[in-house]
Amino acid sequence: MAAIEMRNIVKEYGDGFKAVNDVSLDIADGEFMILVGPSGCGKSTLLRMIVGLEDITSGDMLIGGDRVNEKAPRDRNLSMVFQNYALYPHLTVFENIAFPLRLNKKIKEEEIQTRVRDAASMLELDEHLDRKPANLSGGQRQRVAMGRAIVRRVNAFLFDEPLSNLDAKLRGQMRTEISRMQRRLGTTTVYVTHDQTEAMTLGDRVAVLRRGLLQQVASPRELYEQP
Ligand code: ADP
Ligand code: ADP
Fold first, then answer.
1. Closest ligand 1 atom, CA of 209?
2. Residue 83: which of 197, 160, 196 has the closest Cα?
3. From what superkingdom does this record's organism come (predicted)?
4. Which of 9, 93, 169, 212 lies in the 20 to 30 Å Cα band around 66?
């Protein structure tokens, strides 16, 4: 069974314009799926329909085999990382990452400690757990936002161009960390990017969108190393 299954998904806006036009795509359990395509092709809209931030005009969205078309975002058990993220300035790095766990009263303090330290270690934040966001670099802040997303046990991680505001060197480092983290956790991931290097190094498969249509689904090698 696919972790995420899209069946003939359409998103039509008021004027009849189809931002997403009959997209069917299965994402396997544990798979790292990249969504690419020119600006305006429907990547964000598709991601937002998976998360539940955007209504689906027609078609079915299944997560773990359950139809979620009418489910609220909080009931889909997904974690999304945005390009622009907000940290709580008055909380330490530790508490920022722990935040989503503290909302669930059933998770014990010991478990919170373990999970936060584990996430921080994967993101090289071990040394900074007691700091406040104001005392961190931009890259460290982005890592904290990512830590907050990966600390929960979820059906999937969804990333909307999470590295696009970082400089090239930092992007390279973060790419490696995201890759390591995803393989370690084995969590199904859908990742929107403009960046071919990200698509090649991170993706198990790459889905190419164009004007709302799914044009091709291929491995990075098939897609970028064709003669
Ligand atoms: P991408 O993420 O690939 O850049 P989007 O999913 O943001 O593309 O947008 C896909 C298309 O849908 C674009 O042409 C965009 O202008 C249009 N669009 C997005 N949101 C709306 C909206 N609320 N109303 C009308 N058109 C929209
Ligand atoms: P991105 O390029 O990062 O995908 P956009 O700048 O296209 O984002 O869109 C930002 C916001 O504006 C989104 O909430 C989107 O739904 C909305 N939007 C985009 N295009 C249109 C449009 N043609 N009409 C109305 N709203 C739109």
1. 3
2. 160
3. Bacteria
4. 212
